[in-house]
Amino acid sequence: MIDKTVGEYTQVIKECKTLFEKKTKDYGTAWRILRLPSITDQIFIKAQRIRSIQDKGKQKVDEDINNEFVGIINYCIIAILQSRLESDDRTEISYEDLEPFYDQVVNDTLDLLKNKNHDYGEAWREMRVSSITDIILMKLLRVKQIEDNKGETLVSEGVEANYQDMLNYSVFALIKSNFI
After folding, report:
1. 86, 35 contact by CB (below 8 A)
2. By the 8 A CB rule, do 114 and 2 touch?
3. Do 10 and 79 meet the contact criterion of CB atoms below 8 Å apart?
4. Residue 155: phi, psi to the nearest 5?
5. Are 85 and 39 in contact (CB under 8 A)?
6. Contact 21/95 with Cβ under 8 angstroms?
7. How far apart are CA 68 and CA 24, in angstroms?
8. Quick one: DSSP state of residue 3?
9. Nearest-angstrom CA–CA distance, 35 and 89
10. What is the pLDDT along the chain (180 residues), one digit of tens a residue?
11. Radius of gyration over every alpha carbon of the chain, rounded to an integer in angstroms
12. What is the H or E stretch that residue 107 is in?
């Protein structure tokens, strides 16, 4: 089953990466100006919109919620990139220079998924997409609390692990929604 999941995961990420590449070529890396809490809030806005549409059963803005999950994936990657490139003061980074970093974040996050899938037996396949949305929102609240505590935790994983979990849950939501 893990081979199926890795194949689906890879296909979803391929779509996300294509969009990331196009937006980087359109806008550059304007996101480099954002502090991590601002990126967290951007992810929150997307997750909250998904939940609102799920609760109301309809939407007024003609943008599919799958696009919001894609946005969450790319913003989680951006957050991890921003954190890992903290000592790099360039505002503009070409897509060609950024691509290996993007791929490394994806590979690290896929490794985490494989380990968790081993332990949890792909329980996510039995989850509702609405529950996945709620878990993403919960993880966002955790990240906000960690950010408010200046990154200090007593026993909890840090923000990068939470971004990775949100990324993986968003991939799961897209797989479950037959995005690919």
Report:
1. no
2. yes
3. no
4. -135, -5
5. no
6. yes
7. 18
8. H
9. 13
10. 679 999 999 999 999 999 999 999 999 999 999 999 999 999 999 999 999 999 998 888 888 999 999 999 999 999 999 999 999 999 999 999 999 999 999 999 999 999 998 899 899 999 999 999 999 999 999 999 999 988 777 777 889 999 999 999 999 999 999 887
11. 16
12. helix 95-120
What global pTM score does this model have?
0.95
Q: What tokens does 132 get?
A: 């996945």
**Residues across the chain:** 180
Which distant-in-sequence residues (6+ apart) come within 8 Å of 111 by Cβ? Answer: none
At 155, which amino acid appears? Answer: V
* Structure tokens that stand for 27 in this block: 């806008």
Spatial distance between the Cα atoms of 95 and 73, rounded to a whole number of angstroms: 17
What the block records as the tokens of 21 is: 């590449």
What tokens does 80 get? Answer: 């991890």
